[in-house]
Amino acid sequence: MQRVESVLSKLHCYAGSFDGKPSCKEASPKWLYRKANWTWKLILLVALGLSGMYICILGVEKRVMYQKAILSMASGNKVGTTRPCSELNLVDGLFLHHPQPRTFDRKECSCLPVHNFVIFSMQRSGSGWFETLLNSHPNISSHGEVFSVDGRRESASTITRTLDTLYNLDWISSASKNECTAAVGLKWMLNQGVMEYKKEIADYLKDNSVSVIFLFRKNILRRYVSILANSFDRVAKQLNGTHLAHVHSKEEAEVLEAYKPVVNLTSLIPYLERVEEIIDDACSSFKETRHMIFFYEDLVVNPRKELRKAQKFLGVNPLKLESKHVKIHTRPLHGQIENWDDLNEYLKGTRYEIFLKGKDYG
């Protein structure tokens, strides 16, 4: 029996498929090798699967870190800051950010995206009126002439630090909407450091996806007359000893409108030429940014149409906007200038003659 078992142990036996008798054949060493090969193949397959899973997980983690970095750069925060939202939206070419203010909690509006903007303009071009109209929208915060303070524009670095604070919703003013701000910006006069640091500012605006609104006057002669009248009141203080650049009643407007300045003819044309140069330079310097140009005269003639365009440009729902500002100079130009006859004769035949004729607006 032991001899039979010894022989059988050297054979590969299986039950016959017909007669039930064992059928045996000599075990081949190749079968043993084949069994070993399948074992190693299984181990290799498992190892490859685990390696693939690890690579996928690592790739996802890197992608998440990259997305966080993009979000942080877009909102001006350091990489690694906890984000209330995980996505940077691009809608119709409009970049929407998710700032995380340090001074307050956005609460239920933490995932409401915010659009950054700036209004570039010049004094006495209707920018004060335009900004109060925008600020009557419940989701727009425009913080006024932030850079009227010299210390905030003494260098490119102080300018960018100020802008970082403002676009992170940490700038506090009467225009602050706090939690549910959907568009945040400021009014920036071209003589408040814009042209001195135009390259650095243009780079900042592009890097931070800030949209630009240009607001100018077509009739720059009217603007000049308004500047002369405002400069006079700055000294005369005609309203009960107080200087007001903007008024909220017809009575106040009538007091200021009564003054008619004398225009210096010698310096007038060089002044108008310089204003045109500044406007052209500004438009050229910031042409690579997302921008739109508005004119004060168009706003006066058709405020509803122009304000709707502005709101759509800022990515907010268009609403009826209101302002308490009252227009000061409503008379034709010949009724606002003391030496009108001399001025009229002086500008005849020049390209600025057009400012003397035609409708006041439109």
Give a structural overview:
The strands form 3 sheets. Strands 5, 6, 7, 8, 9 and 10 form a 6-stranded parallel β-sheet that branches. Strands 1-2 form a two-stranded antiparallel sheet. It has a two-stranded antiparallel ribbon with strand order 3-4. The model is unreliable at 1-28 and 59-84 (pLDDT under 50). The chain contains 12 helices and 10 strands. The protein has 362 residues and is of the alpha/beta class. The N and C termini lie far apart (121 Å). Helix content is 45%, strand content 12%. It has 2 domains: 2-53, no CATH class; 91-356, 3-Layer(aba) Sandwich (Rossmann fold), CATH 3.40.50.
| Straight-line N-to-C gap | 121 Å
C-alpha geometry: elongated
**Count of the domains:** 2
Largest β sheet strand count, sense and barrel closure: 6 strands, parallel
Count of extended strands: 10
Point out poorly predicted stretches. 1-28, 59-84
CATH architecture of the largest domain: 3-Layer(aba) Sandwich
Helix coverage percent of residues?
A: 40-55%
Protein name: Sulfotransferase
Transmembrane segments: 38-60
Organism: Adiantum capillus-veneris (Maidenhair fern)
Domain Sulfotransferase: 117-319
